[in-house]
Each structure stands twice: as structure tokens, then as C-alpha cells.
Amino acid sequence: MTFTALILFGTLSSTRVSYGERAQVTFRHLYFREWDPQFETLPYPPSTGVYGFYTRDEFYEGLGFALRRYNETESLSLSGYTFSDARRPVTVCVEQFCLLPRLTLRNVGDSPVVVCKTLSLIDFSESEISDWKHTEAFFHQQGLNLDFARFRKLSLNFSLSSPPIHHIDWDRSIECFQFSVHVLFDNSGQTGQVVGTLTAAPIEVVCGLSGVVRRVNEPEVAPTLHRIVHLVVDLLAFNSSLLSLGLCVVSLHRTVRLWKRTKGFFEEYYGIRLKGLFFDFVNPWLFVVIGGDLLIISGSTFKLVHSKDILQAYIELSYLLGLGTLLVWISILRYVELASQTHLLLRTIKRSVPGLLRFCACALVLYFAFVFPGWVILGPFHMKFRSFTSTLECLFSLINGDDMYTTFATIDTAKGLGIFLFSRVFLYVFITLFIYAVLNIFVTIIFEAYEEVRVSSNAVLTDLCHATCI
User: Fold this and answer.
1) Which spans in 272-387 are helix H?
2) Is residue 303 part of a domain?
3) 394 and 314, same structural domain?
4) Confidence band (pLDDT; 50, 70, 90) for 362?
């Protein structure tokens, strides 16, 4: 039941996230001047630069273009997007640094000044923003003066409503969404490159009987079969996890009581103090099951509460349900110990874990010994080493044999013979050391644990066994 709930959640969330991403691409084509599909590729390897503006006329032309296209959305859009408000409001926010005298030498800790104003495009004609000069004059008239020496960010915020989305799957459901569109012109780096980005957060709303977004006094549509199935599965997953949690807590309570009574008995009648026998009485798998049940219960409750705005709670839900299902599946491994032919796997894992942890602690020290100089020395010359986190990811990818040639080829002799030779020596030493030495030692520890478990026939007797079996 838990697995079924996870599958339904994953299917629902992936469908809606995919819809939101496709709609976001549509908005970029609508509101960004000369937007190219090459900007929609994955960030690595980059096939093109960022979408940016470099001159005053380009900036104001792009700004006016976005406002004009928003004003024409209903007539231009192929998907039938409509304005959430008939007045077509756009909230414009300008963020600029404080004005300082040129001879000021002290640092100023004041935050940038943000000025926001809501414009109703229905009150203006398109001739006022027909080209970049008119757009610049229009913003001056609205009190949104831009000083590009202090300019940091400008954003346009507006909302659009989607048409009713008809699903043709088994339940024939209809959904409606409202998009909060955020167009940002970012000059935070103050390099002369103003980067344009657009994000559109979809919010599920209840469709009205007329096929538009429901108004305040308009009745809601009856729940669809799709929602009913999700509700039933979530309730069953919640109840089954709650029952499992209760049984595990009772079992844990009884085994802890038995452990305490056994310790007291041997200490009182035999004078033996039993040590390190807690997990001989309490099954460690109980803690795994309890952890999984708690996560599933929390995730199911969270999903039931946010059933109408699941996209906003997607990250929290994915953590709770995903990790909960992981622990549930791991807890199934306890049944492997019951079979004589498969219990060797878990015994090998248990035997090798202490040695692997000690080895990983030493390997991490060696790993970070390469990360820091790689980041500091190669960072200015190689995009994979540009930040600390990207350096971590790059070196870990090299250990797994990922994209080695590109890592080598990015730095050539044009960037200097010294950095070229250092990069080669650095990468050759790192790859040789970790692939041929560190990884082989890691595997050897597991093999040794397997051999010890396989050949061991006489178990070590604990204090409890000495007292009861001899």
C-alpha cells in the first residue's frame, strides 16, 4: 500500500511538474524578445551563453517587448491563457544600490533600495511602449527611474490562468492552474551583462462550472475519480503505517523490559553484569521499521492536507514519502536472514561496515587534499572547478570514469604552459591513486569480510551464552 501511494504521488507530481515546465518554456517564447530554443538545453555542456542584454536600447526594448506581449497574451497564445484580472496588472519592482559620492571611501552596509509599483496595462496604450525610447520615457513617468550605475534588479510579476486541462486517461479529469509569472532582469554582478530569466509557478485552482477559474461564490466541482483513488490509497497507507508503528512500539517496549529484567536477574542471582547485549534482545530492524512508518505517516498526512496545492508541497512530500519507502524496502531485508542460503549477504555487510567506515574516513582526508588545491588553482581556468561544490562533483565523477577527456581538454596550452602541465599532473595522480588504489582497497575490505563470514564456523559466545549454555 505504501508503494502504491508512492507510485501515485510520483505519477501525479511528475505530470504536473512537466506541465509547468512546458508552460514556462511557452512564456519565455512569448515574453522574451528573440528567445532561442538553444537556451532551453541542459546547463552542461552549455551549447550557448545566457540570455542577456548588453546595451541600453536592448534592455528597454526587451522590457517593452515583455509588457506588450503580456498585454496581447489572450490573442497570441495557442494554449488559451487568460488574464487572472481583467485590468491586467503588472507589478514592477526596481532594486538599486544607494547613491554614494564619488570620493566616499567607507563601506556602506545599507541594503539596496527597492521601489515597486503596480501598473494596469488596460489604462495605457501600446504606443507608450512601442520602442525602447518610449519605454524608457514611460518608466520615468511612472517614477521608476533607472540609474544603470546603481541598478541591480528589475522584475515584472503578473499572473495568468490556464484553460481547463482535459485528461484523456482512465478518470477523464479536468484541472485548472494559475501561473505566477516572474520575469527578472538581473544585474547583480554589475558587469554590464543584464541576465534575463523567467519562472512561472503553477498553482492548482478549482475549475468553475463554466470552465473558468472558480470565483468566490461559485460552487466547486465534485471530486473526480482520480482524486478519490488518491484519497483512498493515502488513507490506507496512513492506517497501515499507523498500525505497523503501534505494533513495533509494543514489541520494542516488551523487549526492552525483558532486557532490563534479564540484566537484573543475572546481577542479583549470579553476580554477572551483562554488557553490550541490548541488541541481542531488541531487534535493530524495529528502529528501521519505526522510522519508515513515521515518515510515511507524516507524508500521507501532509499530502492529505495539501491535496489541492501539491506542487507547492512537492519537495517536502517527496522527501517524506521517498525516504519512508526507502526504509520500508530496507526493512524487508530482515526476512533475508531467515533463509540459510541468503543470510550470508547481510552478515557480510555487518562484518564489513566497521572497516569500511574507518577506511572512508581516511579516504575522505585524502580526497579533500585534492579538492582544495584543485578548486583554488584550476578554478579560474576550468568551469568544472569554478566552485567548491562543482570541484567535489567533478573529482567524484572522475573516480567513476565520467567524461575524462572533456575534463582534460578544457585546459590547453593557450591558458599557459604552467597551468596546462599542473592540470595534467594533478588529474593523472588523482585518477591513478583513487581508481587503482583507493577503490581496490575498498573492494578488498568487502572480500575479506565475506571470506571471514564464509569460513567462520564457531560463533563467539557472549556472557549470556556462557551463563545459560555452559
Assistant:
1) 278-281, 285-305, 314-331, 343-378
2) yes
3) no
4) very high
398 membership: H or E segment, kind and range: helix 388-399
Tell me if 6 is assigned to some domain: yes
Domain boundary among 293, 322, 338: 338
> Which of 378, 370, 353, 343 has the alpha carbon at shortest distance from 432?
370
Q: Which carries the bigger pLDDT value, residue 339 or residue 232?
A: 232
What range defines the domain where residue 373 resides?
Answer: 343-455
Please name the residues in contact with 4: beta carbons below 8 A apart, sequence gap of 6 or more.
Answer: 233, 237
Between these two residues, 310 and 345, which has the higher pLDDT value?
A: 345
Task: Tell whether pTM > 0.90.
Answer: no
Q: Which residues of 6-36 are buried (b: 16+ CB within 10 A; e: fewer)?
A: bebbeebbeebeebbeebbbbbbebbbbebe
Mean pLDDT of 252-262: 90
Q: Is residue 22 part of a domain?
A: yes
The CB-based long-range contact list for 246-255 (8 Å cut-off, 24+ gap) reads 248/286, 248/289, 248/290, 248/293, 249/290, 251/283, 251/286, 252/282, 252/286, 252/290, 255/281, 255/282, 255/283, 255/286
Which three cell numbers mark 193?
A: 551583462
Give the cell for residue 206.
478549482
Residues, the chain: 470
- Identify the sign of the CA torsion 30, 31, 37, 40: negative
**Which among 208, 102, 227 has a CA at the least distance from the CA of 161?**
208
How is residue 305 written as a grid cell?
Answer: 492536507
Q: Which of 306, 22, 315, 8 is nearest to 162 (CA)?
A: 22
Side-chain half-sphere exposure of 27, counting CA atoms within 13 A: 30
3-state secondary structure of 283: coil
Q: What residues contact 44, with CB distance under 8 A and at least 6 apart?
A: none
Write out pLDDT tens, residues 276-295.
778 888 888 899 999 999 99
The pLDDT tens digits of the residues spanning 64-116 come to 999 999 999 988 888 788 888 888 899 999 999 887 655 554 555 567 889 99
